[in-house]
Known about the structure:
BirA Bifunctional Protein, domain 2; five-stranded mixed beta sheet; Rossmann fold; 40% helix; alpha+beta; 18 helices
Amino acid sequence: MAKQEDTFKRVISHAKEYGYVFQSSEIYDGLSAVYDYAQNGAELKKNIREYWWRAMVQLNDNIVGLDAAIFMHPTIWKASGHVDAFNDPLIDNKDSKKRYRADVLVEDYVAKIEGKIEKEVKKAAKRFGEAFNKEEFLSTNQRVVDYQEKANTILKRLGKSLENEDLTDVKNLIEELEIACPLSGSKNWTDVKQFNLMFGTKLGASADTAMDLYLRPETAQGIFVNFLNVQKTSRMKIPFGIAQTGKAFRNEIVARQFIFRMREFEQMEMQFFIKPGTQKEWYEHWKAHRMKWHLSLGMGEDNYRFHDHEKLAHYADAAADIEFRFPFGFKELEGIHSRTDFDLSKHQEFSGKKLQYFDTEENKNYVPYVVETSIGLDRMFLAIFSNSLVEEELENGSTRTVLKLPAVLAPTKAAIFPLVKKDGLPELAKEIIEDLKWDFNVLYDQKDAVGRRYRRQDANGTPFCITVDHQSLEDKTVTIRHRDTMQQERVAIVDLKSIIHKEVDMKTWLQKM
């Protein structure tokens, strides 16, 4: 656990030091659970968003985009169920005076059990070597089977209690498991209570006439209320999808783990409208398709897993999370939900406007069902950043810190160095910059020895370093160095564009799906 905490602290520190993420309002001592994306973070975030948008909208002829407003009519949130049911179960420790999400306390307890399973697997893998069969070990080793059964039993009970809104049993579960306050070690808990997560605000020129509004807690409802507008103006036929990226806001009382859980965050969602009765088929389709998107980035299949929901949201008939191995354990990265016709039916009921699709093949109207894919952009950022940050021991015994971001997403694709700051080398380096900057985000660096510049760009995640030397003036060649392998090769300046393009082109990466 201490090792995980140290790793996470290193991630947070590196994100600040290299211009990826800053604490919001830092000179005023910051604002809890609110962060600013710095110069490199803004680029990485933009690239992740674009990678998702290309895969979801550009490559699918039956999915279109939308950008709905953050402010929406307040009745929308009554219809969607957020006013009455958008709550977190919170529990206070009487001794430390700290507040926690009750379900997260239990999930963290289960994560420790899963950690014990991983330790057993690692020990067995080391003992048996190439002959080790992980699946067989997990199903036959009695200690592991007992651990897994205990974890499953706890999660099922938690899910059932939350679904039935039996908050007394949630507290009983915490006490039976002897879960202690992470800060004080005390087991002196209050009752569990529900807390609504929506931020309220006002719209209007004066307090007397102002309308009560909410900052949207999710982006999906903007899609649902625009369903018919989009369908008619695009002449879309079912099945079709509407995709959107945008900010959402939740008054997280227990916001923590850096940018994993924030009060202001960004979502990338797609609502796929389908014929009733086909939801199981499309639900499985999008589970598989979204996992392929994640795996196309090459961050390791072992770092992902599906987790089927024990407790279903009020609108769903099936739900699963794609979980990622963060520095603090496996946590939700993306959700795939079969939302039935709940949202459109509710908005139809509350607005008095028909939100139906006329199926020409069946010659009838119906309210479509929906399968949703929803991923947190900030969580995806954290998954990529934390997975990419590594400390490597080199052959000469030294170490280097390298941010092995997928090259397609790296903020800066190449750094161009003049070997020395004279003899016409800076001028040639800047000529190369002028040519490459039309296609890639590149930078110029002439400070310090080349070796130190390499290390700086390694830590910054830059895939290529290009050094201009005296030979470059004679034969128009340069040395290009690859971040991950540290291999260097001599190439013609005219070939630089094609070499970089081959490694960073989104088409190349997305074709892995």
